[in-house]
Write a structure and sequence with these properties.
Elements lengths: L5 E4 L1 H5 L9 H13 L4 E2 L2 E2 L12 H7 L10 E2 L3 H9 L4 E7 L2 H8 L3 H18 L2 E7 L12 H13 L4 E6 L6 H12 L7 E5 L6 H10 L4 E4 L19 H10 L8 H15 L6 H8 L1
Parallel strand pairs: 1-2, 1-9, 3-4, 4-5, 5-6, 6-7, 7-8, 8-9
Helix pairs in contact: 2-3, 2-11, 8-9, 10-11, 11-12
Bound molecules: 3-hydroxy-3-methylglutaryl-coenzyme A and magnesium ion.
Length: 297
């Protein structure tokens, strides 16, 4: 068995934030609990952003407060500012994630702030988190291309990732928000960031818009990354990234990793059952090939 690869499940947050049908809080809670029970070590539960911007997750407090938390599992939540941090802490969140982008244009559309301005907003969040003993993850979006500005210089990705790490984010998740990257570019991007942020502090976050996500993950695993974000059933997408579709499906990532001899700690059958249940709630075909194959088996 080769090294353990840590999967950060983002389905309850990234997966649901762009859905037209809004699931009731009770079903969101059941989703989070089933994912943790399937063995996922980290389940991003929701996000404490402005409900005007993401109405699908307006019930963040109710959802988070309702989770039966499993010991040893992390339940990070997105916070864009101190207001979000305070809402998250009021219901007992112990890990938060701040998010910005390598593209100025995308950041303005997504969080109504430029890159430097967004990082300024994180400073009080990071200070409070340090004092409260709360872990902070950092996301950098549009690392391989932007829906508004097109190409994103590698130097911008490196600068933003380094800044978040220097400010105290324990892990930096590098997001291909619109699923535009291909393996050699993904690897080169990861290696450029790894020259300034240690590889164990990096994660990759691929959307599968063009069917490249698993290939990109494989290229990044070969370069040494040990943490991969994914969403059950391939749900996901950012409402402020036109054309972005689902994240790589967790079922497919687990199947590939286990097939390569990596230990993920995830029960694939339980995950497939959860993905099937979620797809039926959302009234759509699963975005996971492994799930579709096991359905017909
Ligand atoms: P703004 O309008 O500039 O904010 O939005 P503001 O500070 O002027 O506040 C406006 C209103 O929002 C006020 O209410 C605030 O109280 C309220 P009003 O006085 O009008 O009634 N407000 C809040 N309410 C609740 N919780 C909060 C909060 N903050 C302000 N935390 C803001 C700026 C950042 C708030 C907004 O742009 C926002 O919430 N954006 C979130 C967008 C989002 O969630 N996008 C998806 C997540 S990112 C992603 O998916 C990418 C990722 O997956 C990686 C990848 O794939 O690349 C992570
Ligand atoms: Mg995403």
């Amino acid at each position: 068995m080769t090294a353990r690869v840590r999967i950060v499940e983002v389905g309850p947050r990234d997966g649901l934030q762009n859905e037209k049908a809004i699931l009731p809080a009770a079903q969101k809670i059941e989703l989070i609990e089933r994912l943790a029970d399937a063995g996922l070590p980290a389940v991003e539960a929701t996000s404490f952003v402005s409900p005007k911007w993401v109405p699908q997750l307006a019930d963040a407090a109710e959802v988070f407060a309702g989770i039966r938390r499993k010991p040893g599992v992390a339940y990070p939540v997105l916070v864009p500012n101190l207001q979000g941090y305070e809402r998250a802490r009021a219901v007992g969140a112990e890990e938060v994630a701040v998010f910005t982008a390598a593209s100025e244009a995308f950041n303005r559309k997504n969080i109504n702030a430029g890159i430097d301005e967004s990082i300024e907003r994180f400073l009080p969040v990071l200070a409070r988190a340090r004092a409260d003993g709360v872990k902070v993850r950092g996301y950098v979006s549009t690392v391989l291309g932007c829906p508004y500005q097109g190409d994103v210089p590698l130097a911008d990705v490196v600068r933003v990732a380094r800044r978040l790490h220097d400010l105290g984010c324990y892990e930096i998740s590098l997001g291909d928000t619109i699923g535009i990257g291909t393996p050699a570019k993904a690897r080169a991007m990861l290696e450029a960031v790894a020259a300034v942020v240690p590889m164990p502090a990096l994660a990759v976050h691929f959307h599968d818009t063009r069917g490249q996500a698993l290939a990109n993950i494989l290229a990044c695993l070969e370069a040494g990354v040990q943490t991969v974000d994914s969403a059950v059933s391939g749900t996901g997408g950012c409402p402020y990234a036109p054309g972005a579709s689902g994240n790589v499906a967790t079922e497919d990532v687990v199947y590939m990793l286990e097939g390569m001899g990596h230990d993920t700690g995830v029960d694939l059958d339980a995950l497939v059952a959860t993905g099937r249940w979620l797809s039926s709630l959302l009234g759509r075909t699963s975005g996971s090939r492994v799930n579709l194959a096991s359905k017909s088996a």
